[in-house]
């Protein structure tokens, strides 16, 4: 896309970047209020049990312990949940996982709080537990919740798959599994709070959605909205986990009762135990093609384990069902995704909401059919890849900004070069080289539901602009993007815009920083507010410059006549004139993408207003003796609509690739075994490959200056590309993630690359 804007499209300096690296800005764990007390929780040592009694006397006798609170001390409603309320802050009569908190200890020091928590005595009546979601669906299974173990089911049905299978040339049916994943952000879950002079409970938190936190804390405490204020502290990563309440409810409860400053910082062990995980999936998929390689049918049955509580489980089931086809046109589809309760640690949002799990299945099936038909993996994707004018499995007509074929075209030269020059290069006799392709599409925003954003754009009488937005910046750079959008509309520099972000005391709701929605949705809300302000300024300039409104434009802090730019008036003068007349210089912006709810039986509808697309190519080298997989290079082409900040886009792509390497090769959270980073493998700098980011711009008409999103898409194609690369290298496919050393060695043995001595 040719450059046609002044501010957007440029990699301007990130907001607060210098202050972050110098330590001037404090993260949540660094906030230490004067004379603050320390919080710790007593958590269950049973995966499923009735609570017979909780005795806090010994805990209160510990030196330094001030108070101990249980469920009976919660003045409001003791239920939390992003979509459905099924999780207590403090367990009252039953625990459903080892993560469940049963008591909150308040003490003078960290050590005293820990000793106090250990001294809380809980008498349990053990209950049988269920950990396997497939078993949990069987008749007679242990019931995790009274309403049953099925949290939700999402179906997508189109055409007649059975008829298509009957007439198909190639039919392949396989089962895939993915692991539970820990988010593993660098900064732990943390927060602090105090009571201000007006009696308001002020809570600083590391969060992705301050307005959701506010609503939950208000409900827990049974107080008025203006009695709680949530301020997003500078946040060191979230990847979805910090959409759920972590420390906020505990801090609010302590403030409500004690009226003195408190703080709570999760240890890494507590974060591993008690925070949301990525949903593990079991996916059974059957696909069919005609003789030319065109996919004619897809049938999928998938079960995802949401653990003890719902969190974002319903959203994960819905998104995974919609994305089951991948970025491909398939006329006959039958998808059924079930989200199931078990007694595991609860699972919630994690970068991709089920789409990464689906991508393993649809991209593996794509390669299996290519192999069966003698087609090139890139060629079969060209045949089936979505184009503008086609319809999705939900019946949505894709009219614009469908850049998947462009992504394939961008990767093609690297792919052909790697096949010709890299595959055949000499290497160690026990190493095998392979190339893998992974495709992706990703709906921007929440699935088939309203997910609006609001913002306020305000100009002072002196012409200074402030943007108030609830949009939480968790390192992805949204604050900078929103400032760029405002500046573009008003003809200012990005650094002329003051941003007030993520404070429920003075910002309106922008919705969650999730689903790659903030650039598109909050960007549009900010743009709407800025355009309303711009209209007022232009109207005033008409009177001042004696020129028609359509002949005026903003430039360098002025409004000028387009054909005679020397005829101009400063924005500051216009603002003062409007203010002096009693006019409005503060405007509310709003945007909610146009969607249509999905039919519960067929999945028909318009789940998203726009989609991002991508294709990754992985070059891998596999050591058949040790099972080590060395990912040499990832070429990553992403259709982002319009890159408002190209540097941010590149950063997201590189970060997504790094996370995708972990998902593919090493990351696996095992409940009861994985206690901290000592038990959990994440990519190090030596595991991260060379990344070749390619930005594809297929402008989205409804996006702010054509933009869509890239946060989650950056992750999704990496693992499928790597797995396809391993299959290419070994001539043996791995169906279960992660493809760790043991699985790779087993595949090598099965492929006959070496023999195990008897």
TrEMBL record:
It comes from the Bacteria. The lineage of its organism: Bacteria, Pseudomonadati, Thermodesulfobacteriota, Desulfobulbia, Desulfobulbales. GO terms for molecular function: iron ion binding; oxidoreductase activity. It comes from Desulforhopalus singaporensis. Transmembrane segments: none annotated. Residues 22-128 form the Aldehyde oxidase/xanthine dehydrogenase a/b hammerhead domain. This is CO or xanthine dehydrogenase, Mo-binding subunit. It holds the Pfam family Ald_Xan_dh_C.
């Amino acid at each position: 896309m040719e450059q046609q804007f002044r501010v957007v499209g440029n990699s301007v300096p990130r907001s607060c970047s210098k202050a972050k690296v110098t330590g001037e800005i404090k993260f949540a764990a660094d906030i230490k209020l004067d004379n603050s007390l320390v919080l710790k929780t007593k958590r269950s040592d049973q995966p499923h049990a009735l609570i017979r009694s909780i005795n806090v006397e010994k805990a209160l006798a510990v030196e330094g312990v001030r108070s101990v609170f249980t469920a009976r001390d919660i003045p409001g409603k003791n239920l939390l949940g992003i979509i459905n309320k099924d999780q207590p802050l403090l367990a009252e009569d039953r625990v459903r996982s080892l993560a469940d908190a049963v008591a909150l200890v308040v003490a003078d020091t960290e050590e005293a709080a820990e000793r106090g928590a250990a001294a809380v005595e809980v008498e349990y009546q053990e209950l049988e537990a269920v950990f396997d979601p497939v078993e949990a669906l069987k008749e007679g299974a242990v019931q995790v919740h009274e309403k049953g173990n099925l949290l939700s089911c999402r179906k997508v049905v189109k055409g007649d798959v059975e008829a298509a299978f009957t007439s198909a040339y190639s039919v392949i049916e396989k089962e895939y599994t993915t692991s539970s994943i820990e988010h593993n952000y660098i900064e732990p879950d943390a927060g602090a709070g105090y009571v201000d002079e007006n009696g308001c409970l002020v809570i600083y938190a590391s969060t992705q959605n301050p307005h959701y936190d506010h609503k939950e804390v208000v409900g827990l405490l049974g107080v008025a909205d203006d009695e709680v204020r949530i301020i997003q502290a500078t946040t060191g990563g979230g990847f979805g986990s910090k959409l759920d309440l972590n420390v906020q409810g505990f801090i609010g409860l302590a403030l409500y009762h004690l009226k003195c400053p408190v703080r709570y910082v999760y240890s890494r062990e507590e974060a591993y135990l008690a925070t949301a995980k990525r949903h593990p999936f079991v996916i059974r998929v059957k696909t069919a093609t005609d003789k030319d390689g065109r996919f004619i049918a897809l049938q999928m049955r998938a079960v995802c384990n949401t653990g003890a509580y719902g969190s974002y489980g319903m959203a994960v089931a819905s998104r995974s069902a919609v994305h089951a086809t991948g970025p491909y046109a398939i006329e006959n589809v039958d998808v059924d995704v079930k989200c199931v309760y078990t007694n595991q640690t609860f699972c919630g949002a994690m970068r991709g909401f089920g789409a990464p799990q689906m991508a393993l299945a649809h991209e593996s099936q794509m390669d299996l059919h290519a192999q069966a038909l003698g087609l090139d993996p890139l060629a079969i994707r060209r045949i089936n890849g979505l184009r503008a004018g086609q319809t999705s499995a939900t019946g949505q007509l894709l009219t614009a900004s469908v850049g998947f074929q462009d992504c394939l075209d961008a990767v093609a030269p690297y792919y052909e070069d790697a096949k010709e020059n890299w595959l055949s290069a000499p290497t160690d006799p026990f190493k095998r080289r392979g190339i893998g392709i992974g495709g992706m599409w990703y709906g921007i925003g929440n699935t088939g539901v309203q997910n609006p954003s609001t913002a306020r754009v305000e100009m002072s009488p002196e012409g200074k602009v402030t943007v108030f937005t609830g949009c939480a910046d968790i390192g992805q750079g949204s604050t900078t993007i929103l400032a760029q959008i405002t500046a573009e509309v008003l003809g200012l520099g990005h650094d002329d815009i003051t941003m007030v972000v993520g404070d429920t005391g003075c910002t309106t709701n922008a919705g969650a920083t999730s689903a790659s929605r903030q650039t598109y949705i909050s960007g549009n809300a900010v743009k709407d507010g800025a355009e309303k302000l711009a209209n007022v300024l232009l109207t005033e300039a008409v009177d001042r410059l004696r020129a028609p409104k359509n002949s005026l434009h903003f430039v360098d802090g002025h409004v000028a006549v387009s054909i005679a730019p020397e005829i101009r008036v400063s924005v500051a003068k216009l603002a003062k004139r409007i203010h002096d007349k009693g006019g409005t210089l503060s405007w509310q912006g709003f945007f909610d993408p146009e969607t249509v709810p999905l039919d519960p039986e067929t999945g028909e509808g318009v789940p998203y207003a726009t989609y991002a697309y991508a294709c990754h190519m992985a070059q891998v080298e596999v050591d058949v003796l040790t099972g080590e997989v060395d990912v040499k290079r990832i070429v990553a082409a992403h259709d982002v609509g319009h890159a408002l900040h190209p540097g941010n886009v590149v950063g997201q792509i590189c970060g997504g690739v790094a996370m995708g390497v972990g998902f593919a090769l090493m990351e696996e959270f095992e409940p009861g075994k994985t206690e901290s980073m000592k038990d959990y493998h994440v990519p190090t700098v030596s595991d991260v490959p060379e990344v070749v980011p390619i930005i594809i711009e297929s402008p989205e008409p409804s996006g702010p200056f054509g933009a869509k999103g890239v946060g989650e898409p950056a992750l999704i194609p990496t693992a499928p590309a790597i797995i396809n690369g391993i299959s290419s290298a070994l001539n043996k496919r791995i169906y279960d993630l992660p493809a760790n050393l043991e699985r790779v060695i087993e595949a090598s043995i099965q492929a006959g690359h070496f023999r195990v001595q008897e």
